[in-house]
Amino acid sequence: IEIDVRRTNSYLIPDPQPRQSPTQLVLESHLAKRPHLVEKEKELNELAHKVTDALQDHLGEGAMGVSFGIGEEKSQDDDDIDGTKKKKKPLAWAKLAEILTCLHSRDLLPPTLSKEDVEQVNKHVAWRWFENLSHPVLAKSAMWKFANKMVEDMEHKVECAKREDESSEEHIEEPLLCIYSAHDSTLIGLLCVLQLEQPESWPEYGSYLKAELIQEEKDGDSKEVLQHWVRFSLNGQVLRSTWTNEPADMVPLSKLSEMIHSEHDIYCEHTGSKLFTWKNGALVHTKSQ
Fold this sequence. Notes:
The protein is 38% helix and 13% strand.
């Protein structure tokens, strides 16, 4: 099987770096300050410190200065106004989950940590990502290029098939299968931007998201094409789409394309002024204008 890697790029990976724009970091910081997220962080602060302390012997030099993850970027907020350091912070949740998963898979967990600690950290990381990326402005800021590429590939396939049916001339055969390789965090981003059902836990290593393009034809011998549908599944389990009024196993390709390009705004709860807007494939921080 020949695999074409000429279109390899960086926008298939929402995290770690690069973000799609500096404004995305501002948006992540804004959404991370929502009351229910702040309250959840307080509830699990003790666990974060417990795990961080237990992992000290496994950390290399400079580990505390590195952060990644939606809403977890290191900023100047880590310092007091006078330049002195605040209370030592635990490792970012995404980093804790990464380290714990690796150690647990090799039976190398520190004796003070348990399998339940690993599960609790991983569950919280998945919850944080879904809570933040479920907002359409952030979801599209992080994943629109990738999701739009998938939709365009499907639309191109439909158009090519239509031309082949209408003409007797030879055409270049379009691939029946497109494979995109990325990170587990990419799957989280895609599930959110495509508005699919969310799993309870972080996708395991080797997980795969499948998007099937299905052609609906009229009954009989005419083979008249009525519509094209898209069905998504994660590791073989069909995920219902919430693009339509009622969750459904499949969504019309035309509807998917329409919603991928729809615009979204975020307004200040106190003043009602527009803070962020997503329009024409770009994120704008309107507060600064």
